[in-house]
Amino acid sequence: MGHCNSLLLSLLLGLVSLSAAEDDHGFNFPVKKLIGDFNLFPPHDVNIARYPHSDVNKIVEKPLRFPNVLGSDDSALPLDDLAHRAGYYSIQHSRAARMFYFFFESRNSQEDPVVIWLTGGPGCSSELAVFYENGPFKIADNMSLVWNEHGWDKVSNLLYVDQPTGTGFSYSTDKRDIRHDEEGVSNDLYDFLQAFFAEHLEYAANDFFITGESYAGHYIPAFAARVHRGNKAKEGIHINLKGFAIGNGLTDPGIQYKAYPDYALDMGIIQQADHDRINKVMVPACEMAIKLCGTEGKIACTASYFVCNTIFNSIMSQAGDVNYYDIRKMCEGNLCYDFSNMEKYLNLKSVRDALGVGDIDFVSCSSTVYQAMLVDWMRNLEVGIPALLEDGINLLVYAGEYDLICNWLGNSRWVHAMEWSGQKEFGASPEVPFTVDNSEAGLLKNYGPLSFLKVHDAGHMVPMDQPKASLEMLKRWTRGTLSQPGDDVEKSFVAEL
């Protein structure tokens, strides 16, 4: 059987070459292009520090006061009254790894839920979300900070981590600490949470939610399962896990890659002939490759990444310069998005002093981490979710409707295909408007602990494209009222004060 599989693997790699020959863009689904599209050019591929910090404590943090915070948000407490922190966690099961994190206390109440956010990539820093999506501040062109009126800290205590090791300000002095799979990623995150709550017992009893987007569609289910397993085994501090949310994520590649040609055809990106050709040649090859990944291990999983991404690259060869994170927009050169102000700001000496990062380089997106995780890419992370649902842990999957790369159609299909006790009832549940300010901001399906939300007028980064709707989504979901129309956050925030 192993010999047959080896022959099949050789055949699949041959199909990759054949597809690449047909495709002007080849099969190099490129990390450097992805980083270039974000206009991010870190000086190093990964954060391997030569001179580590000398401390040996698990958590080393300092009160965070960013310089040059302009103005005030009418709904915010005075900045000095809020607990903002930046710190490092010495990863317990590593040789020499340190995980960098931010903590922002809720502008509303310390008793609000604790929400952790994971940025994808894999290998992109959570500072992308801090400053461009749902953090308390945004960066102005003059390198000052302004309050984000739709920051998720309006309704939650927010944690952001730079992970896996080598991402953002997280670092190691030993390259062997670079992670390759979800076991390593989720164990590091779980150990960090244990250390964080041990340091901050005042938040330990709060409701806890895991959120994130893109490749975090892999991280989040694995991390949620790890937390739940730790709670059941009474390993340490009980973490009050209530739910996890995946935004425009990659969770079940077997289903999601098959949805690419259908979504592209529906949105007018490709023609029917292109759709039929991809479905005839590339989709079956991808299906075989994913099956091999499940049985043959690392080499087959890496091969399946290249095999399956011929589907995406073939679509992009027809799409031209469309921004595959938001197909309403075009890419001008390599500047689909310009996040360069983040790197400029984080390299200011006053900012680095405030963060306590010393001489550690900031790696916005690490190609080394990205490549290390290729063996993990095509694995199905949906498999661990049903057990969480059965134990009453809530899942919200949401997706902006104009994202191609982790499109809403593929996400909807894996959510509907997932086998659990409520599968039939979820499938039969009505699709209802998700309204914000009496306007339809999306379409929602819900049954029991499972919810799926298609967000209107948004691409890959929903909190950036629809900040008010995403804040309202988080508020209602964490309060168990997602399917109920409600007042917007600003109005209810004032009432609660």
TrEMBL record:
<dbReference type="GO" id="GO:0005773">
    <property type="term" value="C:vacuole"/>
</dbReference>
<dbReference type="GO" id="GO:0004185">
    <property type="term" value="F:serine-type carboxypeptidase activity"/>
</dbReference>
<dbReference type="InterPro" id="IPR029058">
    <property type="entry name" value="AB_hydrolase_fold"/>
</dbReference>
<dbReference type="GO" id="GO:0005576">
    <property type="term" value="C:extracellular region"/>
</dbReference>
<dbReference type="Pfam" id="PF00450">
    <property type="entry name" value="Peptidase_S10"/>
</dbReference>
<keyword id="KW-0378">Hydrolase</keyword>
<keyword id="KW-0964">Secreted</keyword>
<keyword id="KW-0121">Carboxypeptidase</keyword>
<keyword id="KW-0645">Protease</keyword>
<dbReference type="GO" id="GO:0006508">
    <property type="term" value="P:proteolysis"/>
</dbReference>
<feature type="signal peptide">
    <location>
        <begin position="1"/>
        <end position="21"/>
    </location>
</feature>
<keyword id="KW-0325">Glycoprotein</keyword>
<dbReference type="InterPro" id="IPR018202">
    <property type="entry name" value="Ser_caboxypep_ser_AS"/>
</dbReference>
<keyword id="KW-1015">Disulfide bond</keyword>
<dbReference type="InterPro" id="IPR001563">
    <property type="entry name" value="Peptidase_S10"/>
</dbReference>
<dbReference type="InterPro" id="IPR033124">
    <property type="entry name" value="Ser_caboxypep_his_AS"/>
</dbReference>
<protein>
    <recommendedName>
        <fullName>Carboxypeptidase</fullName>
        <ecNumber>3.4.16.-</ecNumber>
    </recommendedName>
</protein>
<keyword id="KW-0732">Signal</keyword>
<comment type="function">
    <text>Probable carboxypeptidase.</text>
</comment>
<comment type="similarity">
    <text>Belongs to the peptidase S10 family.</text>
</comment>
